[in-house]
């Protein structure tokens, strides 16, 4: 799969907002938070710990993003990063875009001296494909907190070591 991976640009925001709105995994309040992190990365790139990389079709000038990854340093740690989201256009899922975004994230973390990436997700059925994805790309489940989000919806934590 040929993709251009690059830092987020202001012109990407409408397409990313559309992808988030069409992704069934995200409730409206989660979309709002995801957009806040994108806005933070756009408005204060040198000051924020949030980094956003987008994937777009190459060779198409101005091609809108088909996915993105948001990650950043975990405050008060030495070498730990949080992976906040990997989001792929629902129409393009299953084609390797998520893996490419993860690989770009892992390279950036390693280049920045990171040694550990932490990611949290939900245990409900809707997120089973997300959990399988994390396992396929080499993350390990290291913790589970029962009923964290609501009864029957556990917090599942995965990690990756560089």
Summarize the structure.
The protein is of the alpha+beta class and 162 residues long.
Descriptive notes:
It is a single chain. The protein has 162 residues and is α+β, with helices and mostly antiparallel strands. It has one domain (4-161): Gcn5-related N-acetyltransferase (GNAT) (Aminopeptidase, 3-Layer(aba) Sandwich). Helix content is 31%, strand content 35%. The protein has 4 helices and 7 strands, in the order βααβββαβαββ. The chain has helices at 13-22, 28-43, 97-111, 128-136, and strands at residues 4-7, 50-56, 65-73, 80-88, 116-122, 140-150, 153-161. A hairpin with an 8-residue loop joins strand 2 and strand 3. Helix 1 packs antiparallel against helix 2. The two termini are 24 Å apart. The mean pLDDT is 94.
Helix percent band: 25-40%
Give the class from helix and strand content and strand pairing. Answer: alpha+beta
Shape assignment:
globular
The helix/strand series, from N terminus to C terminus, equals: EHHEEEHEHEE
The count of helical stretches stands at: 4
- Write out the CATH superfamily name: Gcn5-related N-acetyltransferase (GNAT)
Q: Please name the CATH topology.
A: Aminopeptidase
Low-confidence stretches: none
Instruction: Kindly provide the name of the CATH class.
Output: Alpha Beta
Strand segment count: 7
Q: Quickly give the CATH architecture.
A: 3-Layer(aba) Sandwich
**Major sheet details:** 7 strands, mixed
Tell me the β content: 25-35%
Q: Order of strands across the widest beta sheet? A: 1-2-3-4-5-7-6
């Amino acid at each position: 799969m040929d993709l251009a991976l690059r830092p987020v640009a202001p012109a990407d925001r409408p397409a990313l907002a559309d992808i988030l709105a069409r992704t069934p995994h995200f409730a409206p309040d989660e979309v709002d938070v995801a957009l806040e992190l994108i806005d933070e990365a756009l408005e204060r790139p040198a000051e924020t710990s949030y980094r956003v990389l987008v994937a777009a079709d190459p060779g198409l000038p101005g091609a809108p993003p088909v996915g993105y990854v948001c990650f950043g340093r975990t405050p008060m740690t030495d070498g730990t990063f949080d992976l906040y989201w990997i989001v792929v256009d629902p129409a393009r899922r299953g084609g390797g875009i998520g893996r490419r975004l993860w690989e770009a994230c892992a390279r950036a973390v390693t280049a920045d001296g990171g040694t550990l990436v932490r990611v949290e997700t939900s245990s409900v059925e809707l997120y089973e494909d997300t959990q399988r994805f994390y396992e396929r790309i080499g993350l390990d489940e290291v913790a589970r907190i029962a009923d964290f989000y609501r009864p029957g919806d556990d917090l599942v934590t995965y990690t990756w070591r560089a």
